[in-house]
Amino acid sequence: MCSLHSFSSVAISFRTQKYVNTPPVPRLSPIGSRNYPLPLKASTSGDEIPPNAVRRKIDRNWRGGFSLGVDLGLSRTGIAISKGYTVKPLTVLKSRGQKLETRLLEIAEEEEVDEFIIGLPRSSDGKETIQSNKIRSVAGRLAVQAAERGWRVYVFDEHGTTSEASDRMIVMGLSKSERQNGSDAYAAVILLERYFSTQGLGVEIILPKSLELQAKIKNGAPVDPDFNPENLEEYYTF
């Protein structure tokens, strides 16, 4: 495998459950083929730019930082959003390639999101699959574009989210048609809920190799003077 993010980005994992007292030692590794064994180094460490799930753990009164859950499929991409402590399905996209990445950035702008949580396929034994490589390629390209805006991109284990989403929709009493149309978005909901419930354990940030872009991520997105996360309206429906 040789993809764009093999040269443009690196991954750092958050794997500690005691983040407040013992800052994590990030596992830094190149994303790409074994044909490129040279270690990659990021100027910014993972603990300097923690995901929203970890920020919430550090400060229980923290309310900022909206998260976009992304369930990437072969032909459809489910989107869910977390605002405050509420996770809701948002939409299902049928675009692919650059059009998909552009639309994800547009949605993030519209919804005042500052991080993407992208589902990473794994087998039942925890190993990555062929599809995982494709997801990492998309995440790598998106990370470079998101960093220009100060946003972060993460990948997170999505194993079992599709079946769990299906079960939930049945319990909710959704029709077969509604389940077929909304399954990807609800899988993204499960992904985000799992991400926050585990406080980001195992999530990997995809960092651009560009030091300038890393600095933009560390500084974060520009603050909107009209933004007030304490006054959120419950207007999302699927």
TrEMBL record:
This is Putative pre-16S rRNA nuclease. GO terms for biological process: rRNA 5'-end processing. The lineage of its organism: Eukaryota, Viridiplantae, Streptophyta, Embryophyta, Tracheophyta. CDD domains: YqgF. InterPro entries: YqgF, YqgF/RNaseH-like_dom. Residues 65-165 form the YqgF/RNase H-like domain.
